[in-house]
Amino acid sequence: MARITKISITLCALLFTLPYTPLTQASEHARPVAAHKAHVVKSTTKSTEKSSKSKDKTTTASKKTNTTSKTTSKKKETTASTSKTAKNSSSAKTKNLASKDRKKSSQLAKVQPVALTEKCSKPRKGYKTHCVKVKAEQPTTIAAAHKVRVQKAQKTAMNKLMGQIGKPYRWGGTSPRTGFDCSGLVYYAYKDLVKFRIPRTANEMYHLRDASSVDRGELETGDLVFFRTQGRGTADHVGVYVGNGKFIQSPRSGRDIQITSLSEDYWQRHYVGAKRVMTSKTIR
Questions:
Q1: Is 182 marked active-site?
Q2: Which residue in 29, 39, 120, 249 is the catalytic one?
Q3: Which of 7, 40, 225, 235 would give a disulfide with 206, using CB separation of 3.0 to 4.6 Å?
Q4: Active-site residue among 36, 112, 131, 182?
Q5: Which of 120, 138, 156 marks a domain boundary?
Q6: Are both 80 and 206 inside the same structural domain?
Q7: Which residue range is the domain that position 86 belongs to?
Q8: Can you give the pLDDT of all 284 residues of the chain as single tens digits?
Q9: Does a structural domain hold residue 236?
Q10: Is 284 within the bounds of a domain?
Q11: 237 and 185 in contact (C-beta within 8 Å)?
């Protein structure tokens, strides 16, 4: 009996312990799984949060770039429009000025009448004179008038000089009746054409303040050319340039007044310089 009771007690104990052991084991086994799931859930939420943050950053960056590109494009458009408007305004101004100038010129043309003169032909006997209106010649400008005056004076001086060719040299001579020395010939040609007094020696003529220096390559008809032949002063001989590299001179005693070439060796070696006596300010 005692054995039966022990067996029965052990069976009862086994029956009570069996249903609780798997539950406890199962709960102990389920704990790490749940923890792992919770960790996974947390990591996923963190990754989603990170991804959302990165997406937000990228979207904000893209928005910033878009806004900057839009602003730059707007600025370019505004600058282009302003440049176009400035060009249009400048072109309009130039057109307006051109139209105003045309109007002024047309008005002046209308206001200033054309000067007319009458030309009449000699009539035959028993006929009336026939006159025709013709446009008057336009007055010449001041510069052209001065040039004409200088050319006329040069021509007068050349005529006076050319008329003395072949006459003998005479020291101190200033008259066509007696003859000329070098400076006397220049004095005779220019004394009545210029405002200032012409000196009587070649050296004084070379240092004349009223005459301007001229380079050899720019010589004109009527310019004075100077030479130093005997070593006296700066210049002791003078002639007048007549063009084409030639000058007229009264060389020395025993020789006649003649035209000589400046390119001759003797005159090239002794050449000193040139002076211009006749200008629009110095001629009478």
A1: yes
A2: 249
A3: 235
A4: 182
A5: 138
A6: no
A7: 76-138
A8: 555 566 666 665 565 554 444 444 444 444 544 445 444 445 544 544 554 454 454 444 444 545 454 555 555 555 555 555 555 555 556 566 566 666 655 554 444 455 666 777 766 767 777 777 766 655 556 677 778 888 898 999 999 999 999 999 999 888 888 889 999 999 999 999 999 999 999 999 999 999 999 999 999 999 999 999 988 788 999 999 999 999 999 998 889 999 999 999 999 999 999 999 998 888 88
A9: yes
A10: no
A11: no
**pLDDT at 145 (0 to 100):** 79
In-domain check, residue 93: yes
Residues 147, 229 share a domain: yes
Active-site residue, from 230, 237, 258, 270: 237
Residues 130 and 120 sit within 8 Å (Cβ to Cβ) = yes
Q: Are 233 and 205 in contact (CB under 8 A)?
A: no
Instruction: Identify any residues that bridge with 137 across adjacent strands, giving them in sequence order.
Output: none
- 42 part of a folded domain: no
Question: Closest Cα partner for 283 from 139, 152, 140?
Answer: 152
pTM of full prediction above 0.70: no
Of the residues 97, 120, 138, the one at which a domain ends: 138
- Do 120 and 188 sit in the same domain of this protein? no
> Would you call 151 a catalytic residue per the annotation?
no
- How far, in Å, are 2, 31, 32, 48, 135 from residue 35 at the CA level? 50, 6, 5, 20, 122
Amino acid code (one letter) for 239 = G
Distance CA 4, CA 6 (A): 5
- The helix/strand/coil state of 52 is helix
Residue 39 annotated among the catalytic residues of the structure: no
Same domain, 150 and 245: yes
